Amino acid sequence: MFIVMITSECAPAAKVGGLADVVFGLSRELEIRGNDVEIILPKYDCMRYDHIYALQAAYNDLWVPYYGQWVHCTVYFGFVHGRKCFFIEPHSDRNFFNRGIFYGHHDDPERFAFFCRAALEFMLKSNKHPDIIHCHDWQTGLVPVLLFDIYKYLGMSHPRVCYTLHNMKHQGVTGDFILREVGLDNTGYYMHYDRLRDNFNPHAINLMKGGIVYSNFVTTVSPTYAEEIKYSDQNFGLGHTLHIHAVKFGGVLNGIDYDVWNPEIDRYIPYNYGIGNIEAKYGNKESLRHRLLLRQEFKPIIAYIGRLDSQKGVHLIRHAIFYALERGCQFVLLGSGPDHEINNYFLHLKHQLNDNPDCHLEIGYNEELAHLIYAGADMIIVPSLFEPCGLTQMIAMKYGTVPIVRHTGGLADTVFDADYAHKPYHERNGYVFHHFNYEGLESAMSRAIGMWYSYPQYFRELMINGMRYDYSWKNPGGHYLNIYEYIRDKN
């Protein structure tokens, strides 16, 4: 099967969050299964070009219709750790993708609307006719609209579209002028409630809604998140749209790349280990303490790795730091966020705790340090308000680090409470709390810390249970191929 991914991110060359990891990991799994996969991305100036091999111009004269004129583009080709990627570079005074950052400008909807049109124009002019076009998040929501209303009449009637929702908090709500920019001139037609008009702002269009309405199948990144966004306010206003299109909607749990996140082969940690020699994990714990200047003492290390924003429960993360220290634990944090106020707060907290030999806060992101924390910590907290899938808890379990999570989204699909899960003991792998408050978090942390100190043999069983779970891309890859086959065979 020939599959084209159209996306704003692909790890590790263009990565902001989990979307990038999903695109890379799923593409790799599909290729392993014998499919031909190509990825189309914008050519950002801030990409990690050191992760792109043999980058060269592949199509020099792509002219993309835009606002009644034509924008000249060059399309580059290169391999991102083996993945075949095309990068579209517009030569325009709009300077679409030379901004120094991936997202965060007032004209983001215009930038990515242009990218949608350019990606399809490139496929048309280069005579690419994939079986499946797989689009991701609001940034590519106009692709199925343009395909259905323009490009199928130009000869691209073959492709079917799978559209994946990674995080519904960001939907690309904008003015209808965007449609005219990319050649969808009949704005009155698209401003209908059943098409692109935003469900709560009658004067705006919703790019994510366009992707849902016009695609052949819609997925999201875990089964529980699929239910949550149908029946709770986590859909941020698109619940009715998902109900209308429920027959073509489902959740597929993300996977992680065990070639990257695997303590048996991890090149970033000093001691490799697995279930058979789990004692070697504690060499990494000593190394982590040595690197972060924590005291070597018999106590557990609790960690947090990830973004610092409201979705992740920043007030609970702060509370966890002090609760852990009060309960005789050490705490390590690695993270940063887009909100300067939150970032500055944690920088202040870092200075406040700087002389504490049981605590280290690292504001920023360091890939090598992340691997060492996963390998050296005993527990990891993920106290999210909502979590479409979450990779942190799945990575942690592979490293024998016990997750403490809130029961939401993909966390609910992957972490099963040591005391209360409706699963046999050998399938329980962490600690879960339900209420998004201090009491809920403390209840789970207290049980985890108590188990570590009082019943080390049972805590070790939890570690091993988590390491046995297979959260690779093998199962999700099979699910996506079934979806592709289903929509390919439908007229």
Protein architecture, described:
With 491 residues, this protein is of the alpha/beta class. It folds into 2 domains: 2-255 and 474-488, 3-Layer(aba) Sandwich (Rossmann fold); 275-468, Glycogen Phosphorylase B (Rossmann fold, 3-Layer(aba) Sandwich). It has 17 helices and 17 strands. It has helices at residues 18-32, 108-125, 142-149, 177-181, 187-190, 207-214, 223-231, 239-244, 281-292, 314-326, 340-352, 367-376, 392-398, 409-414, 438-454, 456-468, 474-488; strands at residues 2-6, 36-42, 52-66, 69-80, 83-91, 132-136, 160-165, 173-174, 205-206, 217-220, 249-251, 301-305, 330-335, 359-363, 379-382, 402-406, 431-433. It has a 9-stranded mixed β-sheet, sandwiched between helices. It has a 6-stranded parallel β-sheet with strand order 14-13-12-15-16-17, sandwiched between helices. Strand 16, helix 14 (409-414) and strand 17 form a beta-alpha-beta unit. Helix 3 crosses helix 6 (207-214) and helix 15 (438-454) crosses helix 16. The longest helix is centred in the first third of the chain and has 18 residues, at 108-125. The radius of gyration is 23 Å and the shape is globular. The protein starts with a strand and ends with a helix. The model has no long low-confidence stretch (mean pLDDT 96).
